Amino acid sequence: MAGMKVKHHPPALHGEIIELEPELGHGWLEADDGRKVYFQPDSLIWLDWDRLQTGTSLRFREISGEKRPYVAAVTVAERA
């Protein structure tokens, strides 16, 4: 299969919502490694923005943005 390109996806990470700004349409989560990462409603998969709360555990993929890293493919994480 010469010439075939494989698209690589960033790994799934885990974190917790530490700040929500519903009136501004964004929030911040703290990744398990302690970094603070930006997210917004269009990052969510099968989640209702209005039901999110501080402390909710999330699973996500981090993407490098023009201004800062942000998250995509956000779902609620099942913690053991």
Radius of gyration based on Cα positions: 14 Å
Residue fraction in strands: 35-45%
Number of helices: 0
Indicate the low-confidence ranges by residue numbers: none
Please indicate the count of domains.
Answer: 1
Level-1 CATH class name? Mainly Beta
What is the CATH architecture annotation? Beta Barrel
Total count of strands:
5
- Here the CATH topology equals OB fold (Dihydrolipoamide Acetyltransferase, E2P)
Structure explained in plain terms:
With 80 residues, the protein is mostly beta strands. The protein has strands at residues 12-21, 26-31, 36-39, 57-63, 70-76. The chain has one domain (12-76): Nucleic acid-binding proteins (OB fold (Dihydrolipoamide Acetyltransferase, E2P), Beta Barrel), CATH 2.40.50.140. It has a 5-stranded antiparallel sheet with strand order 3-2-1-4-5, with no helix packed on it. The mean pLDDT is 87.
Show the helix and strand layout.
Elements: E1 12-21, E2 26-31, E3 36-39, E4 57-63, E5 70-76
Antiparallel strand pairs: 1-2, 1-4, 2-3, 4-5
Provide the descriptors you would attach to this structure in a database record.
mainly beta; 5 strands; 42% strand
Q: Brief overview, please?
A:
By secondary structure, the protein is mainly β.
